[in-house]
Amino acid sequence: MNTESPVLNRAAMPSVMSVSALNNAVAQLLERQIPLLWVSGEISNFTRAASGHWYFTLKDAGAQVRAVMFRGRAMYAEFQPREGDKVEVRATVGLYAPRGDYQLTVEAIRRAGVGHLYESFLRIKATLEAEGLLAAERKRPLPAFVKRIGLITSPQAAALRDVLTTLKRRLPHAEVILYPAPVQGEGAAAKLALALSTANDRAECDVLILCRGGGSIEDLWAFNDEMLARTIAHSDIPVISGVGHETDFTIADFVADLRAPTPTAAAELTGQPCEHWLTQLNQQQERLQRSWQRRFQQHQQTLDYLNRRLISPQAAIRQQQQTLQQWENRLKQVWQYRLHQRQQALTLLQQRWQAQRPDIRQAGQQLQQLQQRLQRAQFQQHQQRQTSLQQWQAQLEALNPQRTLERGYAILRDQQGRILRSPAALKPHQAYHIQLAEGSATAELASVQATLE
């Protein structure tokens, strides 16, 4: 590897670099010196942006690095990673210059350590999930009382004895029917599906248990078969899947109506033991007795309460008459009080009027004198105003609006009679009064266009 980078050639480097120039130089150095490579780690802080780009952190026990997978690459990924997924990414090492963050630019992603069988498992699971066969709402509840149980497993299966022992202990009244089928090897999935179909055709069981003991993914592969999964999904009888150990998951577990961690647990989940129902029955009986007793006591109390409230019609009428008499007395008192107040106010006003009553004779003499003075003043003022009037008439004739109107002008008034002088006071679709030289008219404006000259 060439350790002398042209990007950071000491001879070509300036004495002082900006942050942007430094980050760009480091980014080019990383892209040139580190080739495209595979990196493994655990997904953390995964985000799918609105643009379709993926942003996440790839980490292991000792370190972490940010990563980005752009939309053009992410759309070809076989799966969308989630928090905690172990993955391997094919990426280039670079630097996001604006923030100075070292990051991976991912071109491809795959699950870490996933073999062919597990990839097939994921593809089958995704197909069934897309069809809604794994949805929780389509799963049916188990019957409360089980009379006949169907076992679909191998007669030589190690788990068969444990299942039978558990069923005999918990449900001794239930009949067990075995539908034999191999649980591993070539053709096992088809035979398991045939046994399941046979049980449905006979319709003699209340619930079916599909079970086998633990093993490797190859040993349990028959229970990952797509045909078997569809047969389970379309079963008319509820199916319990008890395959492998607690950490083992198969396609049959996801499709079945109920998944049990082990075959023995499947037998325990098939139904409640007799002791449980006897206990429930006793508890229900006690609750029913307490409920009836409580309701009886409540009705007794209600009857006593109604009995105390019950009165005869005559007593009710007397009570209403007393109430009516009380309101009548209160009304009379209120009106008497208000009448007394009005009388007092009237007396007070009469007294004040008498005190303020004027002397008519003296006022008459003063009025006569004022009348004479007023007549003289009016005569003088009349003479003066007549002279002024003649002068104003001459001026008014010169300023008479009629003369202006006769020259072709008009006076515009609003509905209140106010003269309008500015276009700003005009409004469209409103009636206005127009005075002309030879009459008047009323008009409505269609539009207003203000023009300043």
From TrEMBL:
It holds the Pfam family Exonuc_VII_L. Its main location: cytoplasm. The keyword Ribonucleoprotein does not apply. Residues 133-443 form the Exonuclease VII large subunit C-terminal domain. It is found in: Cytoplasm. Its EC number is 3.1.11.6. Bidirectionally degrades single-stranded DNA into large acid-insoluble oligonucleotides, which are then degraded further into small acid-soluble oligonucleotides. NCBIfam families: xseA. Heterooligomer composed of large and small subunits. PANTHER family: EXODEOXYRIBONUCLEASE 7 LARGE SUBUNIT. Belongs to the XseA family. This is Exodeoxyribonuclease 7 large subunit. It comes from Undibacterium squillarum. The gene is xseA.
